[in-house]
């Protein structure tokens, strides 16, 4: 068998962490032949809770789980990391301005970027889940100059999966028949779920829907505001579905996307589709041989163009804001 892969998870004692760690330990992150060593990072006050989760992981007797280490120091936690899931972040609290939020997260993602730069393995792959995910990824990346920039990604897979599910429901189709849907832009309310290139059972999904009113007034806002809908219903934010999406993101990055389909990942822009270079923005991507590539050559209609630009502009503003704060 293979040598264990080191997977660092931050925010390990949080609710996404709780759902995520068991999936990783069972082999769903990297596949059934890859043993994993978990390296958990928490703030000192939450280390005890992370230790509790580690006891339960032990009680899972997972054959692929080769070890668990718990840290409250980023340098140690990222040492030798092959995969890093950056889940812990500073949530927006009442009365908090955007600049305060970005600053607080800069205090988390700057040292974590530095720690990744200092000690992660050469093949490190980073997924930022903690919000504001795209800009947190940008901050971490800018403090890891020795790591190839494209190894820093942010999560829009939950949005992607939500959109696939809503479209399948509308078309009365199994989710497995929906392909080539795209989330563009920021993981925020401005994100744009695009069905114009999507397929249902091989046919164009937008044509199958043939209802622009539903698209503009129901589908797009429903996907963008699904997080709030979950909070309203559950009394807590999405956790297991977010963990599931993080698993999907890394699994596809490492093991490839299925033939004839693509997925959505927020990745550093190379200028494709008019997205300013360097912004970590969501694109349609295919993954192969452990690498992702932005799908090229899609025609962007007017309906899509305005919405992509609006979300990308928001990302550009966030980048300006963190620049001003000296965080990148
Ligand atoms: P929780 O508050 O349950 O857990 C967060 C954990 O992070 C806590 O245990 C906290 O102690 C820890 N933490 C804080 N600062 C840390 C640091 N510097 N180093 C290590 N750990 C640290 O939040 P949870 O519900 O698990 O959500 C985590 C993050 O995911 C939030 O920022 C949330 O907004 C974000 N989400 C992102 C989604 C996405 O699609 N990209 C969807 C789900 C989720 O809302």
TrEMBL record:
Residue ranges annotated for the Lactate/malate dehydrogenase C-terminal domain, each copy included: 156-323
Keyword rRNA-binding: no
UniProtKB keywords: NAD, Oxidoreductase, Tricarboxylic acid cycle
Function statement: Catalyzes the reversible oxidation of malate to oxaloacetate.
Biological processes annotated in GO: malate metabolic process; tricarboxylic acid cycle
Binding site for substrate: 92, 98, 131, 162
PROSITE patterns noted in UniProt: MDH
Protein name: Malate dehydrogenase
Species: Amycolatopsis methanolica 239
């Amino acid at each position: 068998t293979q040598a264990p892969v080191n997977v660092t998870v931050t925010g390990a004692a949080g609710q996404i962490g709780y759902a995520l760690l068991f999936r990783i330990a069972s082999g769903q992150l990297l596949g059934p032949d890859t043993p994993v060593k978990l390296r958990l990072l928490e703030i000192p006050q939450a280390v005890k809770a992370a230790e509790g989760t580690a006891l339960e992981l032990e009680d899972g007797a997972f054959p692929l789980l080769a070890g668990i280490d718990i840290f409250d120091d980023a340098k140690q936690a990222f040492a030798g990391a092959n995969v890093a899931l950056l889940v812990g972040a500073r949530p927006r609290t009442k009365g908090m301005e955007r600049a305060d939020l970005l600053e607080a997260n800069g205090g988390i993602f700057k040292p974590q970027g530095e720690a990744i730069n200092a000690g992660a393995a050469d093949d490190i792959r980073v997924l930022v889940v903690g919000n504001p995910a795209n800009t947190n990824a940008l901050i971490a990346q800018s403090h890891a100059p020795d790591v190839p920039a494209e190894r820093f990604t942010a999560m829009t897979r939950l949005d992607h999966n939500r959109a696939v599910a809503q479209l399948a429901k509308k078309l009365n189709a199994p989710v497995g028949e929906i392909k080539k849907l795209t989330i563009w832009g920021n993981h925020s309310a401005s994100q744009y779920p695009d069905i114009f290139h999507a397929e249902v059972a091989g046919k164009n999904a937008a044509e199958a829907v043939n209802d622009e009113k539903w698209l503009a007034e129901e589908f797009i806002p429903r996907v963008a505001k699904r997080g709030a809908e979950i909070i309203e219903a559950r009394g807590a934010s999405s956790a297991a579905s977010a963990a599931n999406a993080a698993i999907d993101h890394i699994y596809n990055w490492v093991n490839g996307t299925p033939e004839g389909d693509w997925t959505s990942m927020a990745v550093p822009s190379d200028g494709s589709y008019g997205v300013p270079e360097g912004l970590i923005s969501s694109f349609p991507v295919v993954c192969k041989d452990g690498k992702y590539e932005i799908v090229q050559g899609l025609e962007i209609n007017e309906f899509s163009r305005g919405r992509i630009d609006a979300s990308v502009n928001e990302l550009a503003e966030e980048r300006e804001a963190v620049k001003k704060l000296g965080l990148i």
